[in-house]
Design goal:
Layout: E1 2-5, E2 8-11, E3 19-23, E4 27-31, H1 37-48, E5 55-59, H2 65-68, E6 77-81, H3 82-90, E7 122-124, E8 127-130, E9 137-141, E10 150-154, E11 159-163, H4 179-192, E12 197-200, E13 204-206, H5 208-230, H6 242-247, H7 256-275, H8 281-290
Parallel strand pairs: 4-5, 5-6, 6-7, 11-12
Antiparallel strand pairs: 1-2, 2-3, 3-4, 8-9, 9-10, 10-11, 12-13
Helix pairs in contact: 4-5
């Protein structure tokens, strides 16, 4: 666990996403959940040692399995966007793990199958302010990575947990994204949060250049998709975009297969949903449930 500001921490050692914790006198606001129950127990123990207040609250920044599959093990009240809650309502009660092969971290967790969901208890539409004995925490709706993506912003301390809005040195998850909305979200991040510490949900604090690189990368993906659509290419043609998109980013060599698969799945699903909507119903439902 690493401290960003007084009472504000991030943790990137667990399988899944980078976690956040806001430890105030009223209690602890947790940002996203570890995948594995044993990690959730370790995370709770670590936070208790920080001696904040006795209350706990979990904020899920979107519906991705990497950050929501382990939420139940934290045994606390959950806050998320109402569109994230809708995804939970469409999921079966017990996770059945139909091998989506989306290049997500949950796919490396063999015991994921059989996990019971913990649906959000509190939802928001645009903004929700939390006052827990420290600086105000504002949950803000910023769609793009998913329709229900939110940020956890601490304006007084100039810290912003942005979830999957920025995913440095890796291929992004785009199956359920809206690339236009995502690019617009990054425009906001670049324009209004330049002097903030921006914490990615997949890697921890990022630089302003990381945000700009993400912006350029999403535009590159969008241009590639538009070119395929203009010539009415079949969804399988999205495979042709992968080598070029991989060459635009730097990542560890042992992630090559995972990130290739993430693009393969994401590009194909996005293309069907965006440009072949009559064929997208079953694919979209499957992807929302299993990514």
């Amino acid at each position: 666990m690493q401290q960003i500001k007084r009472g504000i921490y991030f943790e990137d050692s667990y399988l899944g996403v980078t976690l956040g914790a806001l430890v105030f006198s009223h209690g602890t606001i947790m940002v996203d959940a570890p995948l594995r129950p044993e990690d959730a127990r370790a995370w709770r123990s670590a936070l208790m040692n920080l001696r904040g207040g006795t209350n706990r609250l979990l904020v899920c920044l979107d519906s991705h399995l990497d950050r929501t599959l382990g939420a139940r093990a934290l045994d606390t009240t959950i806050v998320a966007h109402q569109k994230t809650a809708q995804v939970f309502r469409n999921r079966p009660t017990v996770f059945k793990g139909q091998s989506a092969e989306s290049g997500a971290d949950w796919e490396a967790y063999n015991d994921a199958i059989g996990t019971r969901w913990a649906a959000p208890d509190i939802t928001l539409t645009q903004h929700l302010s939390l006052h827990w004995g420290g600086p105000e925490v504002t949950l803000e709706h910023h769609p793009g990575p998913t329709s229900g993506s939110i940020w956890a912003v601490i304006p007084e301390e100039k810290v912003n947990f942005v979830g999957d809005a920025v995913q440095p040195e890796q291929t992004p998850f785009i199956s359920n994204s809206d690339l236009t909305a995502w690019i617009e979200t990054l425009d906001i991040l670049l324009a209004r949060y330049k002097d903030y510490i921006i914490v990615s949900g997949r890697g921890g604090p990022v630089t302003y250049e990381n945000v700009r690189a993400q912006h350029r990368y999403l535009k590159s993906i969008a241009r590639g998709m538009e070119r395929l659509a203009k010539r009415n290419a079949p969804p399988e043609s999205t495979e042709d975009l992968i080598p070029g998109l991989l060459s635009e980013i730097s990542f560890p060599s042992d992630r090559q297969e995972q990130y290739t698969q993430r693009l393969r799945s994401g590009l194909y699903q996005y293309y069907i949903r965006r440009y072949r909507p009559t064929n997208a119903i079953e694919t979209y439902q499957f992807d929302e449930n299993e990514q």
